[in-house]
Amino acid sequence: MTTQQLPIVYTIQGCDSCVKLLRKWNAEGTQYEERRAETSQEIMDEARLYGNVVPIIRWPDGRVEEGFEGGIGCYIGEGG
Predict the structure, then answer these.
(1) Residues in contact with 59: Cβ distance below 8 Å, sequence separation at least 6, in sequence order
(2) Fewest Cβ atoms nearer than 10 Å: which of 7, 11, 16, 17?
């Protein structure tokens, strides 16, 4: 099993909070792995293990955050 080295961020296209987060990280040179939840059911299901509002950030130390800078992102809960 490999150890997660970069933060993993779950996003969906058109989510304003997701765009803001990625713009900030790109400007800062932050490395990350983006997983677009709308691209496959498998990624969507994986994202839902950690929350129901994107962006969802899974940090290498195991912490999980939803949203960005206090803003509510986009709902991805079951049946949404």
Answers:
(1) 7, 65
(2) 16
